[in-house]
């Protein structure tokens, strides 16, 4: 459904319940009085604008077709949407946190704790990006060996042998289901100093295939993406009427951002190689929120993709990796039966597949760098927001 169809939800004449909260419908004589200071700090139009921001971004994301969903381009759009929504949310949270009173202080602290849990997933995502880079490096060898030759020379046995060796290495990396059990740690800083898993950001390592290891990693061998996702999403409940009323509506953007955080982390775990992942964990949001329909639609599509026969044991649902897997298996089969001198038709087939891989390589080379910068930025913003929230809550407590 296009974003224009939702514009009516945001007109000033529409009740706030259409946005998932019901300040206007709550009786004023309830036990929980609204804090006048919070009420003065929060602008009603800003609350509406935040809900509209989330809705518009996820409607755009849900427009992706089957080929676009779970591609690098789509994932970058998702992380961009998260960064924009988080910045809008941070502005709201900043005003509320400075005068936080129960239950607002509890809701803010709860969100901060969930966000901190996401830092490990961001670390693991960086690890997975490094895995994808190593896959791309082998693909580049295949492309160099089998790709077009400006001199017009025919493919020789040495080129095919070189491509075959890279394909074997690539097949091992793709088919290895023991997807990365890192054991060491280094800091997010370029210097590579050590640090805790919540403050680190590092490439993955410790695979049973030695060449698929990096020198360091950011999460422990026993770490589980599935458990981390469960911890982020557990006990996230839509705010009750009294919570909405006593927080002057701030309970709603906090719940919204909790849901956006959970969905974004689930998507990262689905698309980027991550150890011990499970996408079947419960995830649901009330349909009364305008952003709920596109979010739940995307979640259901991702789960269905993970259930496909050829995807069940895959370490990554990334569309570009699916292309690499398909081309790799095709080339492995084709190069097994080659006789030299090679027939022109067979050579043309190999070169065409190599050209397809070359396009994927180009997409990954550009896309992974941008993706890594976005993941880094989300990491920094979560850490900064956590610090600011704790400072404000500490100030209010005194």
Automatic annotation (TrEMBL):
Subcellular location: Membrane
Residue ranges of the region described as Disordered: 178-201
Compositional bias annotation for Basic and acidic residues: 178-189
Its membrane topology: Single-pass membrane protein
InterPro entries (alphabetical): ROH1-like
GO cellular component term of the entry, any: membrane
Keywords: Membrane, Transmembrane, Transmembrane helix
Highest taxon of source: Eukaryota
PANTHER family, alphabetized: BPS1-LIKE PROTEIN
Family: Belongs to the ROH1 family.
UniProt name for this protein: Uncharacterized protein
Protein source organism: Canna indica
